[in-house]
Predict the 3D structure of the following.
Amino acid sequence: MKILLFLFILWSLCFPKEDLSKEDVERLAELMSGSIGGSASKGIVGGLNIRRGFQFPEVVFEMQDVVGSHSKEEIENVVDNGMLGLRSVYYRHLRKKYGFKGKVLTKFIIAKNGEISEVDIIHSSTGNSEFDEAVKKELYSWKWNAKNSSTTTTILFNFDVIYQSRSGAIISGPRLANETLGSLIQKYPRLRNVYIRYLKLKSGFNGHIVLRFTIAGSGEVTNADIIASTTEYAEFDEAVKKELSTWKWKPIESDNATVAVIIYSFYE
């Protein structure tokens, strides 16, 4: 099976424009659910580093009360945009205390100038006071449009760990495979955020996306391509590609680019 997977990904590197059938992608996802490891090199194929899966932070919120000048919709729009920041806070603290989760009930005041003037944590089940304080600090960075009077709102945030069971990558080039893959895992919540946004437009869709891209020595992503997808949602696929194209890595002293082929799976 390892030989088959190796040949499959080698083919993907050499022929990124070929179309894969839905069955091909499902088969690739099954193969990538195995565990194959290797070290990075500067060869054509380079180091193979595929993980069985990983856990990533998920945050959802529930509006419980709004009193004041701002409407529920206005508050939800800002909170939606702030989810990525909260996921980043959660991810950082998961690295310190693996696997913790829980709910944080907050109550805060939005001043007339649109800034949060006060945040109270009414209840928390995370068992992590340092994390709860980091959540408060993140909330203070949110801002709404100015109003004639203040608004008080109560929101419940649910922090949970979701297992991404079918994701893997092959990384070839001057960058270390472990570091590059680790960064891909760290950035995954940004794609999850895109998925949640598009679920509101088309409920229930899911599937795998196989992407091929290069990382220049400057750290910027170039030549991002979708090799295959089973989502049957072209707009979503392009949004994923667009988001991935904005990612950046640390610059390295090399004229050679690093090539990556990765499969991401999206499910509710």
